[in-house]
Write a structure and sequence with these properties.
The protein is α+β, with helices and mostly antiparallel strands and 311 residues long. It has two domains: 9-124, 60s Ribosomal Protein L30, Chain: A (2-Layer Sandwich), CATH 3.30.1330.10; 128-310, PurM-like C-terminal domain (Phosphoribosyl-aminoimidazole Synthetase, Chain A, domain 2, Alpha-Beta Complex). It has ten helices and 13 strands. Strands 8-11-7-12-9-13-10 form a seven-stranded mixed sheet, with helices on both faces. β2 and β3 (25-34) form a beta hairpin. α5 packs antiparallel against α10 and α6 runs parallel beside α8. It is globular, with a radius of gyration of 19 Å.
Amino acid sequence: MYKCKNRGVVVGPGDDAGVFQYKSNLLVETVDVITPIVDDPYTFGAICAANSVSDVYAMGGTPLTALAILGFASCDFAPAVIRSLLKGAVDKLNEAGTCLIGGHSIEDNEFKFGFAISGVVEKNNILRAGGASAGDILVLTKEIGTGILTSAVKLGKMRRPSLKPAIDSMLMLNKTAAGAAVYAGAKGATDVTGFGFLGHALNMAKRSRVNMVIHNNKIPLMKRVKDFIAAGAVPKGAKRNLEYCSKNTSFASNISNVDKLSLSDPQTSGGMLISLCPEGMKKFDKVAGREKMSYSVIGEVVEGKGKLTVK
């Protein structure tokens, strides 16, 4: 893996975002670009913004500025579509307290949109993918299933209006989850996105040099996710994620292939996976209750060298 020799690098490649110290400031930097998962341009723009700022929240930081990155075929999309896309993005960025200060567009046959996000973080508040410790409790802050459900819509197995709960989840910022994690004294966290729950959990385990025990029946799934997996609405990314993660994951005999694929489903603007010491749970729950944020305790961290057990 590439390693920068500059002494200002606090967190380098491999985590959710990079952290760089400039004088007395700790800067958080990340970039994320995705392809359309919903038809409405306003909603897609807002989801892109929520998805992009998520990496800064996953580091315990505060997103401040955004640069838009847009690829589209100018002959295929009217200016009104792009205006609606940007309007949705700006509204969501405003909710996050983040200012759009510029960007760049290119001619591209495949529509793409995303942001480079800059933010700040306090040294003692940094959350790292490698910050989990044996004895910690694992907390997940959003239900899983966005990849499966959006695939079901594309395949005509689910009506578009039924996608609303998944859209609402993707539009929800991880700001409260990050604040609760920092307040509770957490050191380990990541956001669950394209590599699925298993992929991001495995990355945490490897970087923290621990093992994780996952309780499958505690994983919160969106409605009908398993039904659509059984019906064949499985994105290719879920199968690739499962193939990769299986090398370092032990599954109990009662864990079906449907279960495995649900845990491997690529998420867009997913929730945070937080590794928290038991003493911090009371503080975490206090913030969650005040902000009406749901979460699930889905496992624990044990001694090890970077493997998962799902039971």
